[in-house]
Amino acid sequence: MERLEIEIFLTLAEELHFGRTAERAGVSQGRVSQTLAKLERRIGVKLFERNSRNVALTAIGEQLREGIEPAYRRIQEEVARATAAGRGITGMLRVGFSGAFTGDLVLQVADIFSARHPGTELQIQQVQISDPYGPLRAGDIDLQVTELPIDEPDLTVGPVLISQTRALILPSAHSFARHASVSLEDLAEMTLLTVSGNVPAHWVEYHAPRQTPTGRPIPQGQAIIYWEDVLSLVLAGKGVCPVSAAGARYYGRPGLAFVPFRDAPPIEYALVWPSARETARVRAFVQLSREFVESRGGPSAVVDTI
């Protein structure tokens, strides 16, 4: 059997639909019919029963499928493995993430990446908010999905994968919890949790500012090291914290309220990696991540699909 015959036969056996088979194989529907007819003449028996409504494998067709499919899939895997090795994609890739929904995105992309590049091994780990670029620079991870802004000369910022409305997490008993939205100016009337550790000043100012846009001081509360500390501190009434709106789905619990900002820019998450250690594996993961996000409607819609 020729390669195209095998592909068309196995695809039709899976789809049981000539139109979908033609679309997946990248040929016309007539070519699918011609190829199947040629194959059945060579074998001397019908492989499919078909009429205007249904397509079904015959007993001989099912026997043929069971016989050739495992071998064909193995050939595909070995070709993919050899291709990946030739491109330098095989080996270990360590990917970091900063929060629950970025972790979900990374894990879904990683599953596809592993299937597409059988010679790779992926390790996924969370990066703490108090040292967002430390693991990258130490070589503990190869790339990560993290919050913008990033202004680091030694790091390359890749595509934005997630863009979410900014919200404020606060105790449900707080007076602003009953509002439909809040303003950046409202932060002057609250205590804002901040971040400590090896965090760039411009990042802190963007996510936990000391002043409102008109210059009013914002009371500063306890500094956090781990993201999980935010939930406990807010529940205890120690302060409030800007978060992604997706946090309501991932971190929502009794006693917490998530109120959207009406005048704050979105929180965006992008891939980032050390410029000096960019590899074929990193580039392949970045490209697949971009394709995955685009297939799910783009950065503003992807969280709703994962």
Task: Write a structural description.
Belongs to the LysR transcriptional regulatory family. The protein has 3 domains: 3-87, Winged helix-like DNA-binding domain superfamily/Winged helix DNA-binding domain (Arc Repressor Mutant, subunit A); 91-159 and 269-305, Periplasmic binding protein-like II (D-Maltodextrin-Binding Protein, domain 2); 166-265, Periplasmic binding protein-like II (D-Maltodextrin-Binding Protein, domain 2, 3-Layer(aba) Sandwich). The model has no long low-confidence stretch (mean pLDDT 91). It is elongated. It has helices spanning 3-15, 18-25, 29-43, 59-87, 100-116, 134-138, 201-207, 228-235, 247-251, 280-295, and strands at residues 48-50, 55-57, 91-97, 120-126, 143-147, 155-164, 166-171, 192-195, 220-224, 241-244, 256-260, 267-274. Helix 5 links the parallel strand 3 and strand 4. With 306 residues, the protein is an alpha/beta fold. It has a 5-stranded mixed beta sheet, with helices on one face. A 3-stranded antiparallel beta sheet has the order 10-7-11.
- Work out the helix count: 10
Strand order of the largest sheet: 4-3-5-12-6
Strand content: 15-25%
Rounded to the nearest angstrom, the radius of gyration is 26 Å
Query: How much is the average pLDDT?
Result: 91
Spans where pLDDT lies below 50 across 5 or more residues: none
CATH class call of the largest domain: Alpha Beta
Shape: elongated
Helix share, percent: 40-55%
Domain HTH lysR-type: 1-58
GO cellular component, one term: protein-DNA complex
GO molecular function: DNA binding; DNA-binding transcription factor activity
Protein name: LysR family transcriptional regulator
